[in-house]
Amino acid sequence: IRIQFRSPGTKTLFPDAQLNELVIRVQPTETVYLKTMNKIPGLSSQLTITDLDLTYHTKFNNQYNPDAYERLILDSIRGDHNLFVRVDELAEAWRIFTPILHYIDAGGIRPIEYEFGSRGPAIADKMAKAVATWEPYTYTWPPKLGHTWAKY
């Protein structure tokens, strides 16, 4: 999940500044990080990316972190059903999605294919740009040390 925040309106001072982002990654490595553009202290107008980073396997590397199915099975054994879907919820989901799935199978809608591990189909970026503040994703995580944008 990637949330890009709106531009703070400083494009005149820092035209190359990227948008701040909050990123939540569920799998394969649980991660939450906040990427922000900051001016480097001093008299120059040089920007750098900073991160507030919570990567579970890095921050909690000495503790066992079970995967999602292990947790689900353990909750089931303990009798905790909070993470399970109720029967009426499941029936309602099938009622809503079964006609859609049949329509797709009949050729009514052709799913848009995209490469595994990519950001998704290119048309998703076009749709996001049409309805919201959006900039192309150019940031790589984890960040490379010393990565800065210089504007004088």
List its traits:
152 residues, alpha+beta, 29% helix, 18% strand
Describe this structure in words.
- The longest helix is centred in the middle third of the chain and has 19 residues, at 87-105.
- The protein is α+β, with helices and mostly antiparallel strands.
- It has a 5-stranded antiparallel β-sheet with strand order 1-2-3-4-5.
- The chain contains 4 helices and 5 strands; from the N terminus they run E-E-E-E-H-H-H-H-E.
Structure described in brief:
The chain is of the alpha+beta class. Helix content is 29%, strand content 18%.
Topology, element by element:
Blueprint: E1 2-4, E2 21-25, E3 31-39, E4 47-55, H1 56-59, H2 68-78, H3 87-105, H4 122-131, E5 148-149
Antiparallel strand pairs: 1-2, 2-3, 3-4, 4-5
Largest sheet: 5 strands, antiparallel
Overall 3D form: flat
Helical segment count: 4
Query: Could you state the order of secondary-structure elements as H and E?
Result: EEEEHHHHE
Terminal residue distance: 34 Å
Global mean pLDDT? 79
Question: Total strand count, please?
Answer: 5
Low-confidence stretches: 145-152
Strand order of the largest sheet: 1-2-3-4-5
Helical/strand content category:
alpha+beta
> What portion of residues belong to β-strands?
15-25%
Helix content: 25-40%
User: What is the gyration radius calculated from CA atoms?
Assistant: 21 Å
